[in-house]
C-alpha cells in the first residue's frame, strides 16, 4: 500500500492500494473504499473546489469509479444544488457534478464537463460512476467527527475557562444555517483540568463576528457554553450581553436562573430558525414546520442563508418566541452543574448534544478527587444531573438533594467517555441477561420474553435464578452481555446474592447498560456507569414481567434511556432514576434514520388517530430530519423531536401493517406493540373496543401513555 497523503495529525488522509483509493477518517478510525479502473496517482487539491465543506482533497485521472459500501449517494451540480438521490440507474448529460457519498465517513467526488452513467443504490451492489471519457476526478473527504479531535487543558480559573469555551466551536464545519445539521457540528474538543492553560494550535479559531460577555464565574460560563459553541462565539469577561460585529448589543439577564432561561431560549430558537433557513440548501426539504411557521415570520427564511452570522441573528432576535415555540423539538437532554470548577470537563460533551445548562447546588470540595464523590457520611454526591422531556420533573433538580427527584439522572464524565469508547451491538443482536431472586420470577420473565417471541431487537437472552455472588460477577464480566436486568436486592451499589454480595463499583463491568430494581437511590446505576456502562436505570420497586419485556424490548430497539422508561410507563408503578445521558442508546442505531414512534388511539372500533413522534438521541441529535414511509400517512418531513398528527382516520388494516414493521415503534392505546407480537386485525379491534368502553366509563387508565404534545393546526 502506498500512502499518498500522510498527515497523521489531520482529520482525513488518502492512500492507494492498487486500483483502490482509500479515504481515511483518522478521528473515526474508519476508511471509505473507492474502486477505480486504473491505479490512481492522487495529487493534493484545493478544498475550495467543493460546494460542501471537506477537510482534505486529492485529484487524479479515471474513467470509472465504484462505491462498494455506502449509506447514501446523491448527485449535486457544481454549485452544490441537489439534483437527485441515486435510487435508480441514471444517465447524466454532459456537465459538472458533485457526488455526495455518506458511508463510514463523508466523501465528495467532483467531475467537470463530462457525461456520466450511474447505477442506483440497489441492495448490496456497488454504485458505479462511468465517465464518457478519461477525466480529472477530485475526491474530498470530511470526517464524521463523532469524537473529540483534541483536548484543551484548563486550570481552575474562570477566565481560562472562558478561553477554552471560545474554542468549542472549532469542530463546526461551517457557519451558514447548514450547521443546524448535526453532521456539520463535529464533536467539540475535550476540556480537562490541569495546572496551566493549553489550547492545541491545530484547532481552528471560530470567527463568526459574535461575542458573548459574561461575568468571570464558573456558573455563568457554564450557562452560556452550549450557545457559545453553536454560535461560534468568542466569550469574554463582562456583560452579560451578546455583541455583534454589526454594532448591535443584546442585553442578557444578570440573574442566574433568568440568564439560563434566556440562553436556552436563544439556543432553541436560533437552531430552529436555522433549520428553516436551510430548506433550500444542501438537502432541500418540504418541512411541516416550515409550512406552519413560515408565513408568520418577518422574513423569508431561505433568503437569510447568505447573510452573515450577525445579520442573521439580528433577524432572529425580531421573532416573537411564542410564534415558534409550539414547533420547537423536544430537547433530549438538559443539564444541571454545580458551580465549582469540577464541572468544566463535561462542557464539551454537553455542547455536543446542545444541552442547555443550569447551575444549582454547592461546589464539590477541592480535596475530593473523584468526580462523583461522597460526603463524610458516605452519601453519593453527583457531579451533575440531567433531565429529559420524556420524564418531566416539577422543578430544576438540585445535586445536593437526597434522594434525587424521580425522573432525574446523574451525569458523569465516565458515561460520555464510555459512550465514545465502547462498541455496541446492532439492532437484533442485543443479548440480555436477567438475574432474579426467585424461581417464580424467573419463570414469569421466561414466559413473557418468549410468548409469542422475544421482543424486537433482542437477539438472545439468559435468565439466572438466585445466582451466587460468583455467578453474578461472571455475568457482569461477560463481554457477550449487552443489557443486564438485575432483580436482586440492592443496598446502595451492592447487590445481594444467596452466597454474598457483588459491589458494582468494584466489578469487572462489561454490559452496555443495566436496570437495577429495588433501589431508592441512583447509586447502583451510577456505579454501573462509573464501571463501564453507557447508561443505567435504578428502579425503586419491582416490575411485572410484561413491563420488563416492554422495557428491554424498547432499549434493544434503539429507543434512548429516558424515552424507554416513559414508553414502558414505568413512572406509573415506580420511581426511576438514571445514570448517563438520558438520550444514550444500548445499540448502535442506523446512521440514516432516527427512531420514530407512532401513537395510535381509536376514534371508532375500526378507525384510529395517529400522531407521529421521533426521538433525538446522542447519535441522532437536534437538527436531524425524518419522514414517514407509509403511503397512507402524511409524508412531509419534520425535525426529529417534533410531534404532529399524521392521520385522523387510519384503518385497522393500516395499524396492522405498521405493527408488522420493525420500525417505527407502535404505541397502540398506550401500550407498546412489537412486530414479534404478531398483532391481528381482530386484536386491534378488540383493543379498540376496550379502550372506547374505558373512556365512556371515565377510566383514568384509558390511553395511559397519551400522545406527545403537538401544536394545534
Care to describe what's here?
The protein has 713 residues and is α+β, with helices and mostly antiparallel strands. 21% of the residues lie in helices and 30% in strands. The protein has 15 helices and 37 strands. Strands 1, 2, 3, 4, 5, 6, 7, 8, 9, 10 and 11 form an eleven-stranded antiparallel beta sheet that branches. Strand 10 and strand 11 (127-142) form a beta hairpin. Helix 12 (545-556) packs antiparallel against helix 13 (561-567). The longest helix has 22 residues, at 256-277.
In short:
This protein is an alpha+beta fold.
| Outline type | globular
- Percent range of helical residues: 10-25%
**Average pLDDT, to the nearest integer?**
90
- Beta content comes to 25-35%
The rounded distance between the terminal residues' Cα atoms is: 59 Å
Main beta-sheet strand count, sense and barrel state: 11 strands, antiparallel
Poorly predicted segments: 1-9, 367-378
> How many strand segments?
37
Oligomer: single chain
The SS-based structural class is alpha+beta
Radius of gyration: 26 Å
Throw out a few tags for this protein.
eleven-stranded antiparallel sheet, 37 strands, globular, 15 helices, single chain, 713 residues, 30% strand, alpha+beta
List the helices and strands and how they pair.
Blueprint: E1 2-5, E2 12-17, E3 20-25, E4 30-36, E5 43-45, E6 56-67, E7 72-77, E8 82-85, E9 90-102, E10 106-118, E11 127-142, E12 151-154, H1 158-165, E13 190-193, E14 210-214, H2 218-231, E15 234-237, E16 241-244, E17 249-251, H3 256-277, H4 288-293, H5 309-317, H6 321-324, E18 334-337, H7 347-352, E19 357-359, E20 384-387, E21 409-411, H8 413-421, E22 430-436, H9 439-450, E23 458-465, H10 469-476, E24 483-487, E25 490-491, E26 494-497, E27 500-503, E28 513-517, H11 523-531, E29 535-540, H12 545-556, H13 561-567, E30 575-579, E31 595-604, E32 607-615, E33 625-626, E34 638-639, E35 644-651, H14 652-659, E36 665-668, E37 671-673, H15 681-696
Parallel strand pairs: 12-13, 14-15, 18-19, 21-30, 22-23, 22-24, 24-28, 28-29, 31-36
Antiparallel strand pairs: 1-2, 2-3, 3-4, 4-6, 5-6, 6-11, 7-8, 7-9, 9-10, 10-11, 14-16, 16-17, 18-20, 20-21, 25-26, 26-27, 29-30, 31-32, 32-35, 33-34, 36-37
Helix pairs in contact: 1-2, 2-3, 9-12, 12-13
